[in-house]
Amino acid sequence: KLRPKPKFISGPPGTGKTSAFITEKYLKLLDKFDYKKIIILSHTKVAAKEIRDEILKLPKVKEKGLTEKSLKYKICTIHAYCKSRGMSKELFDYEDHINLCKNQEVGSLFKKQTIKESELDEHLFYKYLNDAFGQGKNVEEFWKTCDRNSYKPYTLNVIQKMEKAYIDYKKDVVTLCCDYDDMIQDFIEDLKEPDIDALIVDEAQDSNVPQREALDKMANKAKEYYFVGDADQTIFEF
Known about the structure:
Blueprint: E1 7-10, H1 17-32, E2 38-42, H2 45-56, H3 59-63, E3 75-77, H4 78-84, E4 90-91, H5 94-101, H6 107-110, H7 124-134, H8 139-143, H9 156-171, E5 177-178, H10 180-190, E6 198-201, H11 209-218, E7 224-229
Parallel strand pairs: 1-7, 2-3, 2-6, 4-5, 6-7
Helix pairs in contact: 4-10, 10-11
């Protein structure tokens, strides 16, 4: 069986892609499939909640007794869905970052940039790892093509030292945790593809290289597979 390719539903902002396509398509899918096998994914919690709220307003959905709880991991973010498939690790958070800064060998390197709790993703080390992962590259490969000025004061050698400490911290039995990239990578490498009938990806143009690989794996057994978004706003090449 060939892995299904997504059908693209493209349109600029304000064209009603969510109301005109996703909700209407969901109703049609409900006539053919069990709701448990219909998955809708987006990139942010806000977007996923908006879609879930719109679908929960549909009379047919109400008749079936579906609730926000029953749709929690049926309409959610890509990361949440990957994690729901079997990952029990907690998310690396600000407290973990503070603990990592206490590392005698590399703590001073992490402290080169001071951040508040709400700014964890803005720390240039974590941003570098995320940017590299999004391109499907390791830290060494990404360094060859990235704008290095964007990650000053960090050099490749320093990032490599920090990455080792970061990986060791996440794997430690005491602090066992993961980041958002781990959720995607673990799903790709370790988790079994789900038995679903339909997958719809909202704002698909924002999907990076590993996310698209994860989405294709999710849809491997799907009968219907859709990408909804604006091709003109694509961040990563398809």
